[in-house]
Structures are given as C-alpha cells and as structure tokens.
Fold this protein.
Amino acid sequence: MEQMISLKNVFKYFGEFRALNDVSLEVAGGERVVVCGPSGSGKSTMIRCINRLEEHDDGEIWVNKNELTEDTRNIAQIRKDIGMVFQQFNLFPHLSVVDNLTLAHMKARGLYKADSTDLAMTYLNRVHIPEQAMKYPAQLSGGQQQRVAIARSLCMQPKIMLFDEPTSALDPEMIKEVLDVMIELAEEGMTMIVVTHEMGFAKKAADKVVFMDEGEVVESAPTEQFFSQPESDRTKLFLSQILTH
Amino acid sequence: MAIKTGRIAALRAKRKRNSIITDTFQLIILGGGLIWLLIRGAAEMHYVWQWHRIPQYLYKVIDGELIFGPLIDGLLVTLEISVYSIVLGLLIGLVTAFLRLSDSYSGKLLATVYLELVRNTPLLIQLFVFYFVLGPIFEIDRFWVAVLCISFFEGSFAAEIIRGGILSVPRGQTEAGASLGLSRAAIYRYVTLPQALPIILPPLAGILVNLIKHSAIVSVIAVFDLTTSGLDIISETFMAFEIWITVAAIYLLITISLSVVISRFERYMKRSTLAG
Ligand SMILES: Nc1ncnc2c1ncn2[C@@H]1O[C@H](COP(=O)(O)OP(=O)(O)OP(=O)(O)O)[C@@H](O)[C@H]1O
Ligand SMILES: [Mg+2]
C-alpha cells in the first residue's frame, strides 16, 4: 500500500515548550491508526499539524504526495484530502443539520443546493440519522451531534479522516453509537488516525497503535503486538492504568 | 402546590403594582422638583416666560402651507449627520476590527494607533483637527468635516464591540470551517459573523443613541444642526430657558424612542437566538 501520511522528524514548539519532539509516523492508504497517551502528551498537536490547524516548526509532513508548506494552495489541497472530527463536535449552531453538511460544499466547491442536499442526505443515512436533517445542533443528543459532525466531514469525500478524542465529551451510553459509525467507516477502507482511549475500539478496528508521551512517539506497533507484548515500560504503565479503569 | 404557586404569583403581581406606584411617585417628585427649581431660578432672575413665541421656531403655516422653522430644520441636519455617521462609523469599525484581528503587523499597528488616538483625546480637539487641518487640505466642507469626525469617533467604539463579538465565537468554529476547506473569507461570512451578530447588534445600537447626542458638538464649527439653531435663536431673542428646554425635549424624544425600538429589537434577538 502507498503511504498516505508521513511525518518525518516533526518538531513543534509553543513558545519555549516543546510539544512535539522528533515525531515520525507512517500511515498507509486504508490503514487505521489509533493514537493514545497521557493528557498533554501531544496527541492533539500531532494530528492538528497534519491538517495545518497547527504549524509544525521543523521536519516534514507529507499528505497524499503533497508536502505541507506555507503555500496556501498546498494547504487547501491537503485539507481537501483530510476530514476532521473534534472532541467538542464543533457543529455550526446557527445552521440546521442539513445546512451544516451542505455549507462547505456550496461555499468551497460551488455545488448547487439540490446536489449538495442529496449528498448530505446520503451521508446522514450512513450515520443513521436522516430524520434529524431539519433540526438544529442544540436539539440533538451528544452522540447524534458527533455523528452529524462525522457526516459533515465525510460529505467532503476525504481520503483520510482524523478523529481527536471523538467520544471523550459523550455520556457513556452514547459512546457506542459513535464508535459503531467509526467501525463501519474503518470496514469500508477509510484511512483513519484516531486519538482515543477506547481500547476496545483499538482492538476491533486498528491496524496499528501508537503510544505518545511528552511529545514523543514512545511505541508504535501492530495492534495485536501492542497489547500483548508492549516493549516500553511507559507503555506498560499506561496500559495497566487505562485497562483497569 | 397549585395554591402555593398561585399565592406567589399574586404576591409578585402585588409587588409589581407597588413598584409601579412608587416609581410613578418618585418620577413626579423628581420631575416636580426640577420644574420647581427651574421656575424658582427664572423667578429670581425676573425671567419673563414667552412660551407662546416658541411654536414659530418649530413650524409656520403660511397660505395653508406647512413650513419648518429653524429648530426642525436643525433637527433634520442632526438626523442627516447621524445617518451618514452611523454608516461610515460602522464601516470604519468593521475594517478596524478586522485589522486588529488580522495577522498583518502593520494592519494591527494602524488600527491600534487609530483607536488609542481617538479614545484618548477630547472629541472637541478631534473636531478642530478635522476642521482646521484636514478640512482645508482635502477641501472638505464643514458638514462633511462633522460627519467624518463623528464617524471616526464612534467608529472606534464600534470597532471594539465588533472585535469582542467576533472573539466570543469559539475557536473550534473557525477550525471546523478550516478543516472543511472553507476559505478565511467564507469562514467569516458564513460561520463567524452570523454567530457574532446577535452579540454585536444590541451594544452597536446603543452607539446610535450616543452618536446623536455627541453630534451636538458640531455647533462649534457652525454646522446648522439642532443645537446650533437653538444657540442662534437664543442670541436673537434671549429666550434661553424656553429654547434650551425645547431643544432638550427634542433630543430626548429622538433618543428615547430610539431606545424603545432598540430594547424591542434586543428582546426579539434574544428570543430568536434562544429558539435557534
Ligand atoms: N495553543 C497552545 N499554546 C500553548 N501550549 C499548548 C497549546 N496547545 C497545546 N499546548 C500544550 O502542548 C502540550 C500538548 O498538548 P496536546 O493538546 O497536544 O495534548 P494531548 O495529548 O492532546 O492531551 P489531551 O489528552 O489532554 O487532549 C500540552 O502540554 C499543552 O499544554
Ligand atoms: Mg487532545
């Protein structure tokens, strides 16, 4: 499989603070990678660098054969290839669900409303909430909102999906409905990087698990191996903490 | 339970009735006191009231045709200045807010210098600078000097209100827009501004009231607004009390009716954002 995403010796600083320390990561097309690690370890920073919500200070980031540079055309191309789902959903509260899905189509790609709405309904069907199309985000449950957010990203037909703790803001009874949608997506062959502490999801859907600590990739291994025979002591400690929860 | 809520409602209604009565009472005392002071003051000065001469300065009817007097003419000029200034001031405010929020260093610097200058010097001095320095250089007549000066003054307040409104929209909204591939301009237009508007509009409407009051200052460069007309009539007739009271009443009438419209509008905005 060809490389879809490739980070080579990436560094990122917030002032003096080094948030990413020599991070390298390879993700092949169709591969599903789960990223875990303690709070403040740089997981969000890493995936936010991939679609330029943060700017990396050193190293190279390649997405679908494009190198991420200052060039705005380059950034636009890379964002076209990548969809992102946030912990806090970030739906547009002033727009109905269907308008949340069609906005970027119509304003960034110049699609007509009718075509755009058809596409939006297709994706709302895929996350199993077509009946909520005319509601506003505030009228939906957290799980429904996150599924709308997933549909909104899918609508732009990305090649890669980034998830930053998509279930952390959800009540326990809603986590499953979101994970189920993500598992379906994985089964369809989407390239995914998922920051999550849901180890059940990792075991079920991930090809590879990456453990980060203090801005570094401490361990990166195929899922099976990651859980059965972790190499680093830090990984073992983290796993013992998170699995006993 | 039902009885209890009924009693509370009754109590509340009673309290409201009481507060209306005390409010009215206070208003009568206050208003009566002011009028009494005014009459006493005038009496001390052996002032001769000539209210019957006032209407002619508001309007005249000649051959069955209604003709505005100088006070109404002045009011029209005040309103004209206000309308031009609010449009221009909003534009200046919007541009300044965007400059301050931009990444451009010189843009930020320009906006900050403008804001600091305008907000830390007296309006009167600004008016003189516009009138004596910029007016002759750019050959602007006094009406437009007045409009420009007031626009820049109120624009500085508008800028901070607009900037605050935009900053109140969570960063995640912009990030979601960017990750969907929307351009910066599209994010502003379709994501940020629609959410900032309900927060920006009420205080912005308040600026309109201020603007009308502040516009009185243009009398010092002899633009024939309401205040200048009042001054003019007084210098001819020496009816200071009657004219000033009339002029104040006209300003009050305009600003109070504007405030009523604004608070209606605020309630409407609140309701529509709650529904959304
Ligand atoms: N905009 C910023 N300015 C300054 N420091 C930041 C900024 N964003 C993140 N950091 C710091 O960088 C470090 C890594 O943050 P990051 O959000 O990537 O961690 P994380 O692994 O996603 O943690 P969490 O599990 O809590 O989400 C943290 O110490 C954080 O305080
Ligand atoms: Mg994070």
